[in-house]
Amino acid sequence: MEMENHRPGSFTYMGRKFSDLSLNDDSSAFSDCNSDRSGEFPTASSESRRLLLSCASENSDDLINHLVSHLDSSYSIDEQKQAAMEIRLLSKNKPENRIKIAKAGAIKPLISLISSSDLQLQEYGVTAILNLSLCDENKESIASSGAIKPLVRALKMGTPTAKENAACALLRLSQIEENKVAIGRSGAIPLLVNLLETGGFRAKKDASTALYSLCSAKENKIRAVQSGIMKPLVELMADFGSNMVDKSAFVMSLLMSVPESKPAIVEEGGVPVLVEIVEVGTQRQKEMAVSILLQLCEESVVYRTMVAREGAIPPLVALSQAGTSRAKQKAEALIELLRQPRSISNGGARSSSQL
């Protein structure tokens, strides 16, 4: 299992060392998944609800044990749904309940619900598992209990809400390093790429965050590129109204350390989009775009010529005069590279290990 640092590493060009080619403030671009945001499930009768709330106020442990026992397949689907719904509600905002519910043995039966052919029951199971995964103490137990493959199936075949919450749950599980490759090998990457391309805004946000976490593993980067991730990344970066420019740029920057990423960016029309961002993006977006272009051009005369012909030099000059100190340094290095496009024969004198 080959792991890389969570952020792109450093490389040296013309005697200069450029470290942390992404930015230090990626946490402001990627907010972590919260507890489920699917709205309230349809509740049971008010009388049943009052009874449950009364039990909860008197002895939540008894209520939790009662609900966990009703997740069993010996009960009807309606009873299982009711139990899963109540577990989801109890675990939504109370961290202490997440631990209690897990200790009461809820994880394995909830994972079984994720494999249900009843899509609503599956959604309830996914959502409850997401809520339990918000507690760090539960993540390892959820993964070791076999949640990854059922969550990936929900990501493929579930309701829109189940897909979003499955992406969030997989993100939570991917925060344990050894789970990253297991999730990638279970088929999650192309499904997350599809969600990034076709989902609503929340789904795109969740998918990009999960992909960013998973793609610190090299083999997942390759899977993402092979799954066609550059197409939705370029499209989202081209749409300044998408509110996804920063997230998409962070993911793209992370993928630049695998050689397959570079022709994929070019083929999907990424060069003019990146040059436009250098011209009109925010300061953070400009720096990200320059970082990506710098890595794209470092080894390729063809790509340098392409970037120069897109009119990159004037906005780079402006950035070198008015950007942040790091942005200025990167802009100056890229200008130097573009003005000497044939200084390295065949564009192949430097190894990708320097990226």
TrEMBL record:
The lineage of its organism: Eukaryota, Viridiplantae, Streptophyta, Embryophyta, Tracheophyta. The keyword Repeat applies. GO terms for cellular component: cytoplasm; nucleus. PROSITE patterns: ARM_REPEAT (PS50176). Keywords: Repeat, Ubl conjugation pathway. The keyword Nucleotide-binding does not apply. Residues 64-340 form the U-box domain. ARM repeats lie at residues 105-147, 187-229. It holds the Pfam family ARM_PUB. It comes from Arabidopsis thaliana (Mouse-ear cress). This is ARM repeat superfamily protein. InterPro entries: ARM-like, ARM-type_fold, ARM_PUB, Armadillo.
